[in-house]
Every structure is written in C-alpha cells, then in structure tokens.
TrEMBL record:
Family annotation (Gene3D superfamilies): NAD(P)-binding Rossmann-like Domain
CDD domains: SDR_c
Alphabetical list of InterPro entries matching this protein: NAD(P)-bd_dom_sf, SDR_fam
One of the record's GO cellular component terms: membrane
Coiled-coil annotated spans: none
Organism of origin: Chelatococcus asaccharovorans
Protein name as annotated: NADP-dependent 3-hydroxy acid dehydrogenase YdfG
Record's keyword terms, sorted: Oxidoreductase
Gene Ontology molecular-function annotations: oxidoreductase activity
Family of the protein in this entry: Belongs to the short-chain dehydrogenases/reductases (SDR) family.
Pfam families, A to Z: adh_short (PF00106)
Lineage of producing organism: Bacteria, Pseudomonadati, Pseudomonadota, Alphaproteobacteria, Hyphomicrobiales
Length: 242
C-alpha cells in the first residue's frame, strides 16, 4: 500500500526480535517514523538496520530499557519527544520452560507478571496522557490466543496474557471519548524465539505450519491503517494448518 503511513509516528516496544521486529520493518516500509524500545541493544540495532534497509530514509530512534521496570522505562524515554507518537505497539512478552502450574514458583510467577502484564501497564501509563492531550491515539497490545483458549502454554502465560487482553478492553472503555482506541491482537503459535523456550522441542513439521512474525505484522498494520472512526477490539490470527 505504498507509504500510506507517512506522517505517522509509531512506538514499538519489544522490537529486538520476533513480532516486534517484523512490525517495525512493516511499519517503516509503509512510511511511518519509528521509536523502537527493547532490552537487547544488539537485537535492537539489527531491527533498526533491517528497517532502514526496507525503507531508506526512514526516521528511526532506538531506546534500550526493560519495559517491566517503570523507573528504567521512564529514564530511557525522558530525553525523547514522544508527543507526536500516535500509535503504541506493545510486543513485549516472554514464557518459561517450567510453565506447568506445579512447576511455578513465587519468583517465576512474578517474573511472568512483570514481563507480560506490568510492561503493558507501564507503557500504557506513559502514552495515555500524551494521547489524551492530542485527543487521538491507538494502543495495540499483542496478547495471545491462550488468553481466550487455555492450552499447554502454561498457567502464568495464560493468566498474564488474559490480563493484557482485559487491560486492553478496559483502556478502550475508559478512553474512547478521549479519541483513544485500544486493540488486542491474539496470535496463535508463531515461529519466534519464544518457541525455543518450550519444555519439549517443537517439531520441524509444527514449526513449518506456524505463523510467521510477518503474518502478525500484517495484522497489526491492518489495525494501524484503519481510520479513527473504526475500532477493532480483538483480532485473532492463527495457523490455518492445525
């Protein structure tokens, strides 16, 4: 669709790899200016390089911070003008190999809450006041089909992704009159580094039939391209071969 996002500024958290990286490349190719946030500087630099190769001349800034740490996130964003960001895409998330409920500890449970849910909260807290001031904004949180349909992804993963989904709906209910929209994208199994954290290795056949990060990026770009009058509450996307 060419450079139809030209003039838009998109903040992508979790941009060091996987879905966040694919979304960054797709948004750059569509003409958006980018601010990329991630914990892994090397991975973030690779994402920025790939996005620039896909869209020479694209404005890209990178910020290194853990979005689950409110203080670190505030410090990382303090010197950056975020007032023109019209879209927040939160692709922060993790899982652990010891994911069954009887394997969870207090520490691993808290780790999952911090990475998957608190990061979504911290990012939303930063951008909501700015979007209210502009009377316009779009927040996209990447959740998971596990938020709606329990599976073997683990109790903490399911609970935290369900929390992200509920948070997204709550933001929409509270903020639509301020011109802010909130969307949750719920991908099924996707071939990202997260697959390598499964307790049982994923078979080549299962990996081959999984979604690609580019598929999730395409779903995200669909939401980004909608006019302000249109709202997608949830977008489910999964592999066609099960």
């Amino acid at each position: 669709m060419g450079h139809d996002l030209e003039g838009r500024e998109v903040f992508i958290a979790g941009a060091s790899s996987g879905m966040g990286r694919a979304i960054a490349i797709a948004a750059a190719r569509a003409g958006a200016a980018l601010i990329l946030l991630g914990r892994n500087k090397a991975g973030l630099d690779i994402t920025a390089t790939l996005a620039r190769e896909a869209a020479p001349g694209c404005s890209i800034r990178t910020l290194v911070a853990d979005a689950s740490d409110a203080t670190a996130l505030a410090e990382a964003t303090a010197g950056t003008d975020l007032s023109q960001v019209d879209t927040l895409v939160n692709s922060v998330g993790t899982n652990i190999p010891e994911r069954a409920f009887d394997q969870l500890t207090t520490e691993s449970w808290q780790q999952m809450i911090d990475s998957n849910l608190t990061a979504a909260f911290n990012l939303s807290k930063i951008f909501l006041p700015l979007m209210r001031a502009r009377e316009n904004g779009l927040i996209i949180h990447i959740a998971s089909t596990a938020a709606r349909k329990p599976d073997k992804s683990g109790a903490a993963y399911q609970a935290t992704k369900a929390g992200v989904l509920s948070l997204t709906h709550a933001l929409m209910e509270e903020e639509w009159q301020n011109g802010i929209r909130a969307t949750a994208i719920l991908p099924g199994m996707t071939d990202t580094p997260l697959l390598d954290r499964r307790p049982t290795p994923v078979t080549p056949e299962a990996r081959a039939s999984a979604l690609r990060p580019e598929d999730v990026a395409a779903a995200c770009l669909f939401v980004l391209r909608l006019p302000p009058r249109a709202h997608v509450a949830e977008l489910h996307i999964g592999p066609s071969q099960r």
